[in-house]
Write a structure and sequence with these properties.
It is found in: Cytoplasm. GO terms for molecular function: hydrolase activity; iron ion binding; tRNA N(6)-L-threonylcarbamoyladenine synthase activity. Its cofactor is Fe(2+). One of its GO terms (biological process) is tRNA threonylcarbamoyladenosine modification. Helix content is 40%, strand content 18%. It is an alpha/beta fold and 346 residues long. It folds into two domains: 2-116 and 302-341, Nucleotidyltransferase, domain 5 (2-Layer Sandwich), CATH 3.30.420; 127-296, Nucleotidyltransferase, domain 5, CATH 3.30.420. The strands form two sheets. Strands 3-2-1-4-5 form a five-stranded mixed β-sheet, with helices on both faces. The protein has a five-stranded mixed β-sheet with strand order 8-7-6-9-10, with helices on both faces. Helix 5 (162-172) packs antiparallel against helix 8 (233-262).
Length: 346
């Protein structure tokens, strides 16, 4: 089976082709960072317009590079939610129009399901059940994943997501727009013990997260250093290292608690923040004492992409969780779709 996938939940336009025999055949992503950087955040209208400008071009490029044609496609998969309404509508309408023109099914996929299943693309030995730490700019959740389509949220952020905290602090430091990865680069030359950045809810037995207080504490320290004209490169590197360590400590500690509480000895880390090298190294080392197996998606599949969407559709079909004959073309989207309701539309 060959599935053409589309992802347009926020500011990345993704087109991918997945083959059940070959795996990910092609995976193209257009990032809009240059468009939004002067605004300090994603501008929904500009995001929608750029999706509209790029999605057809990327689709043609995907077929050109893969050597496949529209006649080879068995189904189309697309992100229906959650995300920005306008961005979702561009991907949804384009994907379903393409499916309609080929007289094949269009499969709506939950964006977070795509992320949490993405490590299975490159880890054939990964077995259910597992704990999923989904950590990105928009979400920070711990889930008990029993099987495809059976997800139980056991912890989530009460305010900011971890990736959001990274991005907002990066902005306060004058780094590139929405690029917490710049903090990781700076942190390499910093000392995480110079500044004390709090770890909210670290000592709480709850599996929930909170990053708002951490972000505020970092903001106060940055402004204090700036007011004293002490915010030089060394201070920036030390702040970056301290912020990174605090966030990662929280993520790992809550994951440790989740493993202890559930007894599930396999953990999957997915989402944009999963690309952080220190998180990867420290997570593997910290969970050794529990004899845990830890899995990450490939770096290129950590951020938003269409490969995870087409792959999630394939898994749902493989496990008979979609009735292809019952799917209807429907241009509505689900900007606030809760993962617990993921099976409600199939």
């Amino acid at each position: 089976m060959i599935i053409l996938g589309f992802e347009s939940s926020c500011d990345d336009t993704g087109v991918s082709i997945f083959c059940s025999n070959r795996g990910v055949v092609i995976n193209l992503v257009n990032n809009q960072s240059l468009i939004h950087k002067d605004y300090g955040g994603v501008v929904p209208e500009l995001a929608s317009r750029d999706h509209l400008n790029k999605i057809s071009f990327l689709t043609n490029k995907a077929f050109e590079k893969s050597g496949l044609s529209f006649s080879d496609i068995d189904a189309v998969a697309y992100t229906i939610g959650p995300g920005l309404s306008g961005s979702l509508l561009i991907g949804s309408s384009f994907a379903q129009t393409a499916a309609w023109s080929m007289n094949i099914p269009a499969i709506p996929i939950h964006h977070l399901e795509g992320h949490l299943l993405s490590p299975l693309i490159s880890n054939a030995k990964l077995e259910f059940p597992f704990i999923s730490l989904l950590v990105s700019g928009g979400h920070t959740q711990l889930m008990a994943v029993n099987k495809i389509g059976d997800y139980n949220v056991i912890g989530e952020t009460l305010d900011d997501a971890a990736g959001e905290a990274f991005d907002k602090i990066a902005r306060l430091m004058g780094l590139d727009y929405c690029n917490g990865a710049e903090i990781a680069k700076l942190a390499v030359n910093g000392d995480p013990d110079v500044f004390q950045i709090p770890r909210p809810m670290f000592n709480s037995p709850s599996l929930d997260f909170s990053f708002s207080g951490l972000k505020t504490a970092a903001m106060i320290r940055i402004k204090e250093l700036q007011s004293k004209e002490m915010f030089d490169h060394i201070a920036r590197a030390n702040i970056a290292a301290s912020v990174q360590k605090s966030i990662i400590d929280i993520l790992i500690h809550k994951s440790y608690l989740a493993v202890k509480r559930t007894g599930i000895k396999t953990i999957v880390v997915a989402g944009g923040v999963s690309a952080n090298n220190l998180l990867r190294v420290t997570m593997l080392d910290s969970l050794k004492s529990l004899s845990c197996k830890v899995y990450f998606p490939p770096l290129e599949l950590s951020t938003d992409n269409a490969a995870m969407i087409s792959f999630a559709a394939y898994l749902r079909l493989k496990h008979n969780l979609i009735n292809m004959n019952s799917l209807k073309y429907n241009l509505s989207v689900k900007p606030r779709w809760n993962l617990k309701d993921v099976n409600s539309i199939y």
